[in-house]
Write a structure and sequence with these properties.
Length: 339
């Protein structure tokens, strides 16, 4: 049986999500990158070095995630990985769609990368490719097999939407066959492309799942995958009755860095110019009010202020106008590990 625990927020650990570029070879229907807010630049190696140095005083406590766009499109990714290791970051993960450009698996070693984390949104090409692009399933599976064969630890991210939630229970055997050791279930956020559909037949983005769908599918499916010996993490999304709400922006250290210099503390704020920090002349500088920090301290019956603003349809209300439940901070996670 799997052991379940809620992963508490902690200031003893820092999570640094560093977007090296926003360019990608895929055109996923639910991509959260918003060029109007995140820019279109690819950071040069020298800039990456200086920006990482801003976090170096706590590097040993910092979990560094290199992402994009598609980070393996960055020609200097191998150099950046070695640079991060020289700076002694606590762990290093590369988030990738699996195409693994510039022969990255041959340019780094398993000792230098803690995890290659792959994105797959269906157990077959028929489910995955309409969401991520033709050929994406086969390319990702091939990338995972090559990474595992070369001794790299691998994890997989599955973004749940109405388009693929009914197929999540088919992922367990595939994960086991591929040699995946960590499985992350992610809820689709109404930001980026999902918040700004292009319109027209067949172009509507996958929609957010309901509370009933989430609770009926995600926890039991996660438990079955964990029973296969795979660690599973998923966002709590909906708080249990009586469970207090907490905002990670107040009680945790999370940073989301974009190539245009914006640094957010909350991923739900990324579609808006609400960033609390910015790199100016390669120095990390606090933004003046009003920014996301001003929202973190607000107390509302619905729980998360940003979810209340951008996902009002996912909250139900009683006849007296009170919310029937609270929406958790999107960074509050449930973790299951096989005993």
């Amino acid at each position: 049986m799997a052991r379940k625990r809620t992963v508490a927020f902690s200031r003893n650990a820092v999570n640094l999500f560093f977007h090296l570029l926003t360019r990608c070879n895929l055109d996923c229907r639910h991509c959260y990158i918003n060029p109007d807010q995140h820019g279109t630049a690819t950071l040069p190696l020298a800039t990456v070095r200086r920006w990482l140095e801003a976090f170096q005083p706590r590097s040993r406590e910092t979990n560094l995630v290199l992402l994009g766009g598609e980070p393996t499109l960055h020609r200097d990714l191998a150099h950046i990985i070695r640079l991060a290791r020289e700076m002694r970051f606590g762990s290093l993960t590369v988030d990738t769609n699996g195409y693994l450009f510039h022969d990255i698996l041959a340019r780094v070693t398993p000792a230098e990368v803690d995890y290659f984390s792959f994105s797959l949104d269906g157990p077959t090409a028929e489910i995955n490719d309409p969401l991520r692009g033709e050929g994406a399933f086969d390319a990702c599976v091939d990338g995972i097999r090559r990474a595992v064969a070369q001794g790299f630890a691998t994890s997989l991210i599955y973004t749940v939407s109405r388009a693929n939630i009914d197929h999540l229970d088919r992922m367990g055997p595939l994960l086991k066959d591929l040699g995946i050791t960590r499985f992350f279930i992610q809820v689709i956020g109404l930001r980026g492309r999902s918040a700004h559909p292009s319109g027209g037949p067949g172009t509507e983005p996958p929609e957010q799942v309901s509370r009933e769908q989430w609770l009926n599918v995600i926890p039991p499916t996660a438990a079955r995958v964990a029973d296969l010996g795979i660690s599973v993490t998923y966002p709590k999304v909906f708080l249990d009755p009586g469970e207090p709400f907490a905002c990670a922006g107040l009680v945790a250290e999370n940073y989301f860095v974009f190539p245009n210099g914006r640094v957010y503390r909350c991923p739900l704020c990324e579609d808006h110019p609400l960033h609390s920090l910015v790199f100016s002349d390669d120095r990390l500088v606090a933004m003046p009010p009003i920014n996301e920090q001003d929202l973190f301290a607000l107390t509302i019956p619905e729980g998360c202020v940003m979810n209340r603003l951008i996902q009002p349809g996912n909250i139900e209300y009683r006849p007296d106008g009170r919310p029937a439940y609270q929406i958790a901070c999107c960074l509050l996670k449930e973790e299951l590990r096989a005993e």
